[in-house]
Amino acid sequence: MRDAVIVAAVRTPLGKRNGGLADVHPADLSAQVLTGLAERSAIDPALVDDVIWGCVGQIGDQTLDIARTAVLSAGWPESVPGVTVDRQCGSSQQSVHFAAAGLVAGHYDVVVAGGVESMSRVPMGSSFADGNPIGPAFAVRYGPEAPNQGIGAELIAERWGLSRAQLDEFSLESHEKAARAQDEGRFDDQIIPVTTPSGSVVTRDEGVRRGTTPERMAGLTPAFHPDGVVTAGNSSQISDGSAALLMTTSERASELGLRPLARVHTAVVAGADPIIMLTAPIPATQKALARSGLAIDEIGAFEVNEAFAPVPLAWLADTGADPKSLNVHGGAIALGHPLGGSGARLMTTLVHHMRDAGIRYGLQTMCEGGGQANTTIIELL
């Protein structure tokens, strides 16, 4: 029976908004990570059947199927196609799911899954342009306003009884874990340095705040409601970045002399209330565990995207997962959240952590616009 394995996973450093990567066109940012993936794996790009690329803001610099533009910008053969995927924040995790399904079905033998977002060059919400994504039928069911993720985070905090102090403490720990991971070189094997148009080279994630204190966190103003608990400090950072995974089957990997890192064990998607929007990782995780036959305590590592601190905290409360195994090298609050590239970034971080720590099973999930979530369980090989 055919399977889907990950043989290499790389990412760029994550740049702060208007930071070190802001001058790099997202197609070129993608191209550099594709080049790095080919070099790290020693794969001939001509063997790649498709590049499946997540991107949320498909407008301006990121329009016209940026996956294909990235392939050509990387100097890969013109025979390699590319397709761009949008499942909001989970776009590149969905790319991994599509790649895995294609491999198991026999549609692909070698495929790249990943994504990109340059939020400096294509600001969040740019794709709204002058249009209105809320049509009459949706408005009748849910109201005329587009659901707001920040308000959704506030609703989660209220429903799960999460205090401002709890959110800030979780966020502070995210920065501390990310700083420790940087200092210990935990990201070194996964990061592809990025050369900017000026010739400078970006090698480290820019969002990690060292020396942040509970007092500084407590002094930040609520971002979405005057009396709310969600602030810029306990929310993910607006970022630039890209990540990519090389995937194939066990049989084809053996033929090519490639050593798989992990197998895609289970992949599911789920939907939930689109107004609170950010709770779908809970039913998606439950669905993945049921389908996999695994219990939560058999999973040794979790990556739950830190879109807002209430999301992973509510997820922990409902799943009963071990907090010590969650986002052990920090999450999007510290590292950043380049929307379309985040799913592949989390997967890259997860598979490297599992390899380094000898963890058999890892689970990744992330909330997505419209009240959706992907969950992926991977198995170390």
From TrEMBL:
The keyword Acyltransferase applies. InterPro entries: Thiolase, Thiolase-like, Thiolase_C, Thiolase_CS, Thiolase_N. Signal peptide: none annotated. The keyword Acyltransferase applies. CDD domains: thiolase. Keywords: Acyltransferase, Transferase. Pfam families: Thiolase_C (PF02803), Thiolase_N (PF00108). Residues 5-249 form the Thiolase N-terminal domain. Gene3D superfamilies: 3.40.47.10. Residues 259-379 form the Thiolase C-terminal domain. Belongs to the thiolase-like superfamily. Thiolase family. PANTHER family: ACETYL-COA C-ACYLTRANSFERASE (PTHR43365:SF1), BLR7806 PROTEIN (PTHR43365). This is Thiolase family protein. It comes from Pseudonocardia xishanensis. The lineage of its organism: Bacteria, Bacillati, Actinomycetota, Actinomycetes, Pseudonocardiales.
